[in-house]
């Protein structure tokens, strides 16, 4: 019984939040890693791309809600997600046409493109604030819980509650579908294979007749889809605030680098590594340890929290440094800079 | 041979002329601001512009001279700000008595753990035993450190937490905090350079971005150090207080003889004094940076930047040189951070945001001309002026656009609110336009 209680507490406070956060980070890191693999620069505007796509999706959600169109128990935002992706893709393709293409033609150094993406970041940040302001926006509707605390306790007779919120479940399912689709696309379709070829060896890909502009276009569309999905899921599960999305840049980059920049599998794994470390190190383990301690005397007196939650950036960063020191190309083999 | 020297000479002269014209233009912008808005606004912009010029100088040293991509500017500025508190605020005797020494012991223990782990890693032969031993030292050391530190922190923070609740500083003159800020930032840069040796472009960027966030997180959460988000206000000032000036008969008489009322005169006088102090520091640093740029050392740095492999083949220790210039540039950022906090008179960790304190400085350097010290300073002053002026200009623009619209229309309200967000958009556009059409900046590297 004590053991079961400990496991439930662990699932409730560590595993479920970390898996949800990890899925969001994985989707974000996939976007970063694709841009890095195909366009060969670190896209600092990625957090703001997420915020932009989410903003569009939020506007459509509000419009649907105003029209009385809903998905019943599911959040309306899921209905608005494809429209958000379309809006974000148009914007991103526009930026590529107006800004990035010029530097690609010039074969500018990657670091110049990084600075260019800083300019895009400023512009997108301004555009998002212009459209939706800087405040918290809540756009989640529909049912709130799949499993709530009371019914779980009644059904199992355990002391510890287990809560599964609907947005959390949606995050897991949507992220799983998105990742599966992406890998199917990259590994099975002609366009996906040409993207991988382009990422592995640009000159050879060009020689074999792959159209680089088309590869770049498809990449941006996929990046917009991943970024918007990640942003909407994060907003549904937590809340939408433009500045928070900008700050997600650090854990997202940490995930992509830990996994190996340019490697999609690495990005997914990296997302979960970062999420589990952040949640695990900033969680107060007192409750779980109390159930596990065989006698009262061995129960911990403090909270057993390794670091306060405000230091979660420090956690992603420490892992990033450790990986860079011991495996400079990431857990999975990524491209070295 | 002489033809080559002649063209180069002409190029240098044209560079000087261009610089002189652009700096005169900058002065004219400030003069127009003073004449149309008020001289107080113009001086405020000038003062922060001078500090921004120093920040840009620091980034230019790292990026323009050595190609190091540091986007942790915010963290080094915050370290400089912290130095102001640690140097100039009076010590809190009670807090020291309550747990100061224990706290210091805890910190020493933490540092000792890290040093022990590093030494162990270096001394033992590679293998599983080494990994396990290092982990044991780190984990054991961490819990020991927390066991010593936590009670001390609680004791210190409970001392009159509404007004102090921190250890305080040394109670020394605040001007001393400027060089100390440089030293603290240099120390931080040394640690970063040690844990991230030879990190190149993208990786160094992410590493510095992360470290800046961590420094801000520490400042926000470690209340015993500088009161966290409760802020330390009322820092001592290097210049007289306005109210003291207004109370002094001699000052009031002199103001009256110039036809100024005492309040305006005192604020102008104080801002002017700050401006002189900042300009002096800027000129000294600019002179040093110019000397460095034109010395054999500067030529070596540029050689490394332009072709690292060739420089290494010539026997230059690239990693060491990179570490050196990273520390020097960060020290300048620390000095600028301390100056900024001195000007504000308070340390407010909650206000440090990467867009304002890291990426904006980058815009300054790129717009001014990376690799050119004068360009960086010009960029710092110009972009700061624009940053301040975009808001009134945006309001005016939105006012003009929305004037024909009926009152109460949602679009009118939305557009007028949106004027506040014009800043980021404008900065992004300026950066993109300069990168596209004048990638070497206003004052290109010679």
UniProtKB/TrEMBL annotation, chain A:
It is a multi-pass membrane protein. It comes from the Bacteria. GO terms for biological process: D-alanine transmembrane transport; L-alanine transport; L-isoleucine import across plasma membrane. This is Amino acid/amide ABC transporter membrane protein 1, HAAT family. GO terms for molecular function: L-isoleucine transmembrane transporter activity; L-leucine transmembrane transporter activity; L-phenylalanine transmembrane transporter activity; L-valine transmembrane transporter activity. One of its GO terms (cellular component) is plasma membrane. InterPro entries: ABC_transp_permease (IPR001851), BCAA_transport_permease (IPR052157). Belongs to the binding-protein-dependent transport system permease family. LivHM subfamily. It is found in: Cell membrane. Keywords: Amino-acid transport, Cell inner membrane, Cell membrane, Membrane, Transmembrane, Transmembrane helix, Transport. It comes from Wenxinia saemankumensis. The chain crosses the membrane at residues 20-39, 51-71, 77-99, 111-132, 166-186, 215-236, 305-326.
Automatic annotation (TrEMBL), chain B:
Its main location: membrane. Pfam families: BPD_transp_2. Keywords: Cell membrane, Membrane, Transmembrane, Transmembrane helix. The chain crosses the membrane at residues 16-35, 41-61, 68-89, 95-120, 132-149, 169-191, 203-219, 273-293, 323-343, 355-375, 382-406, 418-437. One of its GO terms (molecular function) is branched-chain amino acid transmembrane transporter activity. This is Amino acid/amide ABC transporter membrane protein 2, HAAT family. InterPro entries: ABC_transp_permease, LivM-like. GO terms for cellular component: plasma membrane. It comes from the Bacteria.
């Amino acid at each position: 019984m004590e053991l079961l209680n400990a496991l439930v507490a662990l699932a409730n406070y560590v595993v479920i939040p970390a898996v949800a956060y990890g899925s969001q980070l994985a989707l974000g890191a996939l976007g970063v890693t694709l841009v890095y693999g195909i366009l060969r620069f670190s896209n600092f505007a990625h957090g703001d791309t997420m915020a932009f796509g989410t903003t569009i999706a939020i506007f459509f959600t509000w419009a649907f809600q105003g029209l009385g169109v809903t998905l019943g128990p599911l959040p309306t935002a899921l209905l608005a997600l494809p429209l958000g992706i379309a809006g974000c893709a148009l914007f991103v393709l526009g930026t590529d046409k107006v800004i990035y293409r010029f530097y690609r033609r010039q074969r500018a150094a990657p670091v110049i493109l990084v600075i260019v993406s800083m300019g895009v970041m400023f512009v997108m940040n301004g555009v998002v604030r212009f459209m939706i302001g800087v405040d918290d926006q809540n756009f989640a509707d529909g049912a709130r819980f799949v499993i709530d605390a009371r019914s779980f306790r009644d059904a199992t007779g355990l002391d510890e509650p287990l809560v599964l919120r609907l947005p959390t479940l949606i995050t897991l399912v949507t992220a799983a579908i998105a990742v599966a689709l992406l890998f199917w696309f990259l590994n099975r379709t002609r366009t996906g294979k040409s993207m991988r070829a382009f990422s592995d060896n640009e000159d050879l890909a060009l020689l074999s007749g792959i159209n680089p502009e088309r590869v770049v276009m498809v990449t941006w569309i996929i990046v917009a889809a991943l970024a918007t999905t990640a942003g909407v899921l994060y907003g549904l599960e937590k809340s939408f605030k433009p500045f928070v999305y900008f700050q997600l840049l650090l854990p997202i980059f940490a995930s992509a680098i830990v996994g190996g920049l340019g490697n999609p599998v690495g990005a997914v794994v990296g997302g979960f590594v970062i999420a589990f470390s952040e949640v695990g190190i900033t969680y107060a383990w007192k409750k779980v340890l109390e159930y596990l301690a065989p006698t009262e005397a061995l129960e911990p007196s403090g909270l057993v929290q390794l670091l306060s939650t405000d230091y979660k950036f420090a956690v992603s960063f420490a892992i990033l440094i450790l990986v860079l020191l011991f495996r400079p190309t990431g857990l999975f083999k990524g491209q070295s800079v | 041979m002489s033809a080559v020297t002649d063209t180069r000479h002409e190029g240098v002269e044209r560079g000087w002329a261009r610089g002189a014209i652009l700096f005169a233009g900058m002065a004219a912008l400030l003069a127009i601001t003073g004449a149309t808005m008020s001289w107080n606004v113009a001086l405020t912009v000038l003062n922060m512009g001078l500090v921004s010029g120093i920040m840009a100088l620091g980034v230019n040293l790292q990026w323009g001279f050595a190609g190091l991509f540091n986007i942790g500017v915010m963290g080094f500025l915050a370290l400089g700000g912290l130095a102001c508190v640690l140097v100039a605020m009076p010590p809190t005797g009670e807090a020291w008595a309550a747990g100061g020494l224990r706290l210091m012991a805890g910190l020493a223990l933490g540092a000792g753990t890290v040093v022990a782990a590093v030494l162990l890693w270096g001394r033992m032969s590679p293998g599983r035993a080494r990994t396990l031993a290092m982990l044991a030292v780190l984990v054991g050391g961490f819990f020991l450190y927390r066991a010593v530190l936590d009670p001390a922190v609680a004791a210190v923070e409970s001392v009159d937490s509404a007004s102090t609740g921190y250890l305080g500083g040394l109670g020394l003159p605040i001007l001393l905090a400027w060089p100390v800020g440089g030293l603290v930032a240099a120390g931080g840069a040394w640690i970063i350079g040690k844990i991230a040796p030879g990190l190149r472009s993208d990786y160094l960027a992410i590493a510095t971005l992360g470290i800046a966030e961590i420094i801000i997180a520490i400042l926000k959460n470690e209340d015993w150090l500088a009161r966290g988000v409760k802020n330390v206000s009322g820092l001592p000032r290097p210049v007289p207080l306005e109210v003291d000036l207004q109370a002094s008969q001699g000052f009031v008489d002199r103001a009256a003889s110039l036809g100024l009322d005492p309040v305006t005169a005192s604020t102008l006088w104080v801002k002017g004094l700050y401006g002189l102090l900042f300009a002096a520091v800027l000129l000294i640093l600019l002179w040093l940076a110019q000397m460095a740029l034109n010395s054999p050392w500067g030529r070596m740095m540029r050689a490394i930047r332009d072709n690292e492999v060739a420089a290494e083949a010539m026997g230059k220790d690239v990693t060491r040189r990179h570490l050196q210039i990273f520390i020097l540039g960060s020290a300048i950022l620390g000095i600028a951070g301390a100056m900024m906090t001195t000007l504000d008179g308070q340390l407010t960790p909650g206000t440090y945001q990467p867009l304002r304190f890291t990426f904006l400085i980058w815009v300054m350097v790129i717009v001014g001309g990376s690799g050119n010290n004068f360009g960086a300073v010009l960029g710092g002053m110009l972009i700061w002026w624009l940053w301040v002026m975009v808001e009134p200009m945006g309001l005016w623009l939105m006012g003009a656009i929305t004037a024909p619209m009926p009152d109460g229309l949602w679009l009118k309200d939305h557009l007028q609110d949106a004027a506040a967000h014009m800043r980021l958009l404008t900065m992004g556009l300026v950066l993109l336009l300069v990168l596209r059409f004048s990638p070497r900046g206003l004052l290109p590297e010679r």
